[in-house]
Design brief:
Largest sheet: 8 strands, parallel
Number of domains: 2
Structural class: alpha/beta
Mean pLDDT: 90
CATH superfamily of the largest domain: Ribulose bisphosphate carboxylase, large subunit, C-terminal domain
CATH architecture of the largest domain: Alpha-Beta Barrel
Number of strands: 12
Number of helices: 16
Oligomer: single chain
Shape: elongated
Strand content: 15-25%
CATH topology of the largest domain: TIM Barrel
């Protein structure tokens, strides 16, 4: 079930004065006991996520408390945006929507602390779902965001206006660097703008990221000599944070023109460090692996547009893989639209990240996908290309033709 539309805030108490220029505004959907004192429990959540337990004036200076405590507002029954399916609700439960305003100086410019503040221990209190975040400009300015973004990737691929095509290498595992490079070469000749490793293909005894970067650079130069088009290669450098940066530096030195990272598995803050590394000046493509574990539940977790859109964009992901509403991965059009808005919409002065919907996309589904996403998107296709009876070059050409037909320049 998609998250409900983001509603206009309604004041809960007349004396609550929240300045969106100085506070992080977090919206929640909450299922609790029908008999609960929801006002008291919501205040308890706000307290837990800011100043902690109420220790009384003898233990905490009132001025300090006023400076750091979070405040609840907009508390109302969630009748118009219920949580989950009716069949899942117990007769003794009630559903609420509310917002908490957190002083931005509690968070600073730290992505881990942002998540810890707005969800943290409160995630263990029951059926509580974080459905939206609104960040003050002062906080957004603390993040560098994407280095290349949509415009930078377009410049690197010479694709000025149309949707891009990203080919996903298959099979996922088992190819040697030379075999993978041959797949890249065929896809490049067929019209791919970029080719990416599978999320499962990292450093293995039969194929390391550095070896693949070298082999694919040779294939990319060969394809460019024949077509006059540059095709990016996103090599998967996913590893623990310290090895992630070393993998990335070695891959770029070996000729990689892009990096793939399973950003949720590694940690979004690790991507931030990678994106700001002066030795890693190539686009970063974030993969959604484990994203559904964080966002798929209707009664808990974090909304997908935050997990797959806002947070990776703040961290500096230049492009982000999303589930397509017209594919095999589970999503819906409303969630997809919010994810794209989080990646491409206004966000301080940060560059826009490129949405890359994939997962079961075929040439036949391209037109519907482009109709939903518009031209500032990259279509990610894997198995449908490699299953083509004439091989990856023909399969790529077929999808590229579908893209150009759907969005003629």
């Amino acid at each position: 079930m998609p998250d409900p539309p983001l509603a206009t805030r309604e004041p809960w108490l007349a004396d609550i004065d929240v300045d969106p220029e100085t506070h992080v505004l977090a919206s929640y959907l909450w299922r609790t006991r029908a008999s609960a004192d929801v006002a008291l429990e919501a205040r308890t959540i706000a307290e837990l996520q800011s100043v902690g337990s109420d220790l009384g004036p003898a233990r905490m200076d009132p001025v300090a408390r006023g400076r750091h405590e979070a405040r609840v507002f907009g508390l109302r029954p969630a009748e118009s945006d219920p949580v989950g399916d009716a069949a899942d609700r117990s007769p003794g439960s009630a559903e609420w929507r509310f917002e908490i305003a957190y002083p931005a100086h509690n968070v600073g410019g730290q992505l881990p602390l942002l998540l810890t503040t707005v969800y943290g221990e409160a995630a263990a209190l029951g059926e509580l779902r974080l459905i939206d975040l609104r960040l003050p400009p002062s906080l957004v300015r603390g993040f560098a965001g994407p280095r290349h973004g949509i415009d930078g990737i377009r410049k690197l691929t010479s694709a000025a206006r149309r949707p891009l095509l990203v080919v996903m290498i298959k099979p996922s595992l088992g190819l040697t660097p030379a075999e993978s490079a041959r797949v890249f070469y065929e896809a490049a000749l067929g019209g791919a703008d970029a080719v990416k490793d599978d999320e499962l293909c990292v450093d293995h005894p039969w194929s390391t990221s550095t070896e693949r970067a070298k082999a694919h650079r040779i294939a990319a130069d060969r394809a460019y000599a024949e077509t006059g088009r540059r095709t990016l290669y996103f090599v998967n450098v996913t590893n623990r944070p310290d090895r992630l940066r070393e993998n990335a530096r070695r891959a770029v030195a070996a000729g990689a023109t892009g990096l793939l990272v399973n950003h949720l598995a590694v940690g979004t803050a690790a991507i931030e460090a990678l994106a700001e590394d002066p030795e890693v000046d190539v686009p970063i493509l974030g993969h959604l692996a484990t994203g559904a574990a964080m966002s798929a539940s209707a009664t808990g977790g974090i909304a997908s547009h935050l997990v797959l859109g806002l947070l990776p964009r703040l961290a500096g992901v230049d492009a982000a893989i999303l589930a397509s509403p017209h594919g095999t991965l589970r999503t819906d059009q409303a969630s997809f639209a919010r994810e794209m808005a989080a990646l491409r919409g206004p966000l301080g002065g940060l560059k826009a990240s490129l949405p890359v919907p994939g997962g079961g996309v075929t040439a036949e589904s391209v037109a519907r996908l482009v109709d939903l996403a518009g031209p500032d998107v990259a279509i990610g296709v894997g198995s449908a290309i490699h299953r083509h009876p004439q091989g990856a070059r023909a399969g790529t050409a077929l999808v590229r033709a579908a893209i150009e037909a759907a969005c003629p320049q």
